[in-house]
Amino acid sequence: MSTTSIESIDDVSPSVNVLLDVVGLGKTYGSGHGAVRALDDVTFSVEEGEFVCIVGPSGAGKTTLLRCLAGLMTPSQGQASIAGERISGPPRGLAMVFQDYGRSLMPWLKVVENVGFPLRNKGVSKAERRERSMAALESVGIANFAQKHPWQLSGGMQQRVAIARALAYQPQVLLMDEPFASVDAQTRSDLEDLTLRIQRQSGITTVFVTHDIDESVYLGDRVIVLTKPPTTVSQIFDVPLPRERDPISTKELPEFAHLRATVMRAIKTL
Amino acid sequence: MIVRQPAEDSRRRGWRQLGDLALRLAVLIGAGLVWELYARAFPSLFIPPISAILANAWDQWVTGDWRALFIAPVFLEMLAASFRRLVPGLIYGAVSGIILGVALARVRFLGEMFSPLIQFFRAIPSSAKIPMFMVLLGIGDTMKIWVIGISVALPLLMNVMDGVRNVDPTLLAVAKVYRVGPWTRLWGVILPAAAPQTFAGLRIATMIALIVLVLSELTGAADGVGYYVLYAQRMFYVLDMWAGVLVLGFIGYLLNAVVSLAEVRILRWHRQSTSTAR
Question: DSSP for A130-197?
Fold first, then answer.
């Protein structure tokens, strides 16, 4: 456990804009003898425009952490805040892409309606809603499927719809919960590059939870490694790769291989 | 990727549907023929040939008056009396069943508090509810509408509750994260997600409504199709009795068709999404 890396970030750059701040976050399920301590004491912060990946062994409470950040769960201890505002209930300007794409889209709505759904009754006119939905679908490359229903699309396509829905919402913070865990390797690689491209274009602060170490190093500006439960932050790594990434050339860089090995070792030796 | 193709052009599909329809009609007519032949082969006072039943119904219910669409007033009065009870009962029952079902499923303590009471009420057979409501509301149409309404609402409510409780938690989480208001959550997520089970309940409920209608007309009425059947049976007007039974069957068929039609329109996504093998 090295808390130094956490402090060093705060110390070295006190001027940067911390957007998401997590301090001493803990979550216990149940009470008494049956109580399960999922998160013990999680502390980290994410700067504006940053892409942070969170990895950890399976069962490390990654999803619990993300649910606390999304305001879907109330932490038992500590707190998380966005732009200085404590999170209690789903915060404004936060979007999330869920793991099971098949269940996060509404089968009774067409693709374009799914993307526009969060904008309903939000003071966004129908025309603007449509425009934003179509633009979002355009940017994930599936505008020509706008009039289809989700179940007519493949898994990868469905997750693109979910990403488009998050984009159309124009969030400050985007949470992604193992979004590509159940698509095939090629689709996954495509979706990773899509996510990177969109993040670079929009500058949306992104927290990406995954159990895949390669993915975390390839996508992240920083990689946060969690411990086994009761979970704390084990280590935080800066990713010393150029911000423009390529699935082939980036992954053959010695820095990539080195960091990948380091992260893997960090998780193995927990 | 994209699974279904518009392929099979609509003309060919049209022909196939026409063929299906012809087949179904043929089975229906065949059943009538079997009845006719049986009744002629084994003459009995109680099972008259269907041709005699229809001829008798024609004599009674069809007039030469084109202004009334050839329908005799007695027939219209009989139907009107029944529909005056059936339709309000169905509508009140369906609306209250859906509202209560959603409320009891969404507000946990309400559901827990009321579920024994509902289970108990549901366990009382509808036929036994009639005398109970007769005591409370007399024998008029109010009683009949109430009995139909409650007999419809209770099973429907259970189905709706089940449907609402089984809405995928991921969808509810999506609605929460994107800060969707309660109104949009209800109309945009919960009700559509519970619609398949609601319609299943509605199908059962309409059939129950018809049963209860007839039962209520057997006990305290001087008009309506149910009364007509009972009266004819008591008077040994066997042909009339059979005609009334056929009318009831026809009403049931019609009700089911109306629900099916609505279901096909509203649940197109459900039918197609579950039939899409992936």
Answer: HHHHHHHHHHTT-GGGTTS-GGGS-HHHHHHHHHHHHHHT--SEEEEESTTTTS-HHHHHHHHHHHHH
